[in-house]
Amino acid sequence: MKRRKYMIALIIIIVIAVLLIVTNVIIVPQGNNYVVELLGKYQATWNAGIHVKIPILSRVANRVSLKEQVLDTPPQPVITKDNVTMQIDAVVYFHVFDAKLYTYGAQNPVLALENLSATTLRNIIGSLSLDAALVSRDMINAQLTQLLDDATDAWGIKVTRVELKNIMPPEEIRRAMEKEMKAERDKRQTVLEAEGHKQAVITRAEGDRQAMVLAAEGEKLAEIARAEGRAKAILLAKEAEAKGLELMKAAVPIEAVIELRKYDAMVGVANGTAAKIIVPTDVVEPTKKNVIFAETTGLGDITGESVRLDPPAPKDECCEGKSQHKPFDTDDLNA
Fold it and tell me: Is residue 32 over pLDDT 70?
């Protein structure tokens, strides 16, 4: 009977020991830190892995996640420097870098961070006008991130980034801004249209000027070509005439041919209706008797001297031996 009681007591002790071991062996997951207290006082910060705490005397005071977290603050009214009330909400990105400070630095660190971001945002927007606040998002984000990061170091929190989510001016301000934007766009459209018309006129004038320049250049080249053609024609004619003279000189023409050329020139001159030829009397008879000249011009005696039937005139003794000249009748030439 006693032996049975001892066995039961031993089993109970073993079960209690196993329960104590199981309940005091703690596994910390990756990305987390556990803050452990011994008799209500900070003992250690456990990183990822397996740990054993002292039964009854120690406890896990806080389980802290080291992952980056997002705090979405609700829209809040802020007043700008020019007394315009706007609704602004922001998004804060942060993570815990010290579990001990996060546990003992503030009663509720996340709530404290939310309120701190709201008050800091009011201070920053209050120093800016409406237009500056609308166009200075990057500056506001950077300034807000720096201020929150410096203020939360004592809480073991690292603020990595702050973004303004929405900026909502009053309804009447939005309508005025829309009208201003529409007027600005209309002005830009008018300026662009005027600039386009100006460029078109300039381009058209430039094209006309280039066309006139090209036409003048073409006319100049045409005149040069025509002048060169005329000069070349005159040169060729003179060369041909010189070559003909050289050929005539080399052929040693007879005197009859030279006489014929002379008569041809005289015929050309006589063809004029108002032309008159004065021929010396000492060359009239030889010219009239010349067969070539007579055949060419139709003047003079072609068949030679005709036989006169009249008796010869008596000789004048006093005028014997003197030269006698027969007057030249110009009617013969005109015939």
Answer: yes
